[in-house]
Design a protein that fits this description.
The protein has about 240 residues and is of the alpha/beta class. The protein has a single domain (about 10-230), classed as Class I glutamine amidotransferase (GATase) domain (Rossmann fold). The chain has helices at about 25-30, 85-95, 105-115, 160-170, 175-185, 195-200, 200-210, 215-230; strands spanning about 10-15, 35-40, 45-50, 55, 60, 70-75, 100-105, 120, 140, 145-150, 150-155. The chain has a seven-stranded mixed β-sheet with strand order 5-2-1-6-7-11-10, with helices on both faces. Helix 1 runs parallel beside helix 4 and helix 4 runs antiparallel to helix 5.
Amino acid sequence: MTDEDRTLEIAILVCPGYMPVDVIGFHTALGVLPQVNVHLVGKNLEEISGFPHFPTRATTTFEDCPADLDVLYAGAVPADVLEDAETLAFLADRGSRAKWVAGVCAGSLLMGAAGLLRGYRATTNFHVYDLLPYYGAVPVHTNNVVEDRNRITAGPATGSHEIALRLLQVLRGTKTARQAELNMEYAPKPLFGVGTPELAGPELTRETVAGTAGMNAAFRQAAQRAADRLGVERQPA
């Protein structure tokens, strides 16, 4: 049986403070197709809030999530989740068998914290790009999708759509992926054209980074502790 013939099992992590913008495009592109089970996976089925406030309930607990997944996926989460033992144990277990492990924005760091990016090329949001080596990943400086064997990562927001399209191509064929791109009318035309530090220039980039300094500091501290926990020697200067 080929991937195009069988039911796919997809798990998307949700937790308090997760960023729906990194999840919804992926969820929609996969979830509208037949023979695809999309699990919003969390510790329990109680209502949680994404960031900004976005009420959500997991549909599947860690315990009940299928053992063998076609895709294990995470978007950005708060820094404290990168050190949550239960979440990391779940990701490490399912990720060790999943056909694909995918991370968008700080979801890439989360997969790294679970030990799933050691030796893999990866990318993330530019705010925390320099933290990838703390998790043993090989950083690729790009705002596009980075694919290395069965690991696939991207920056925030549109990365959710782009990873979805690539995995649809792999799992359901190019025609299905092309139809999905057309159905969602995915043809980005940025209003200002400042969507990367290189395009934005140093002044706007400095102001933007300063505005997220507190959040970025929490990710940096978590990364430093993760490097010690994972025994990663290659760290940023």
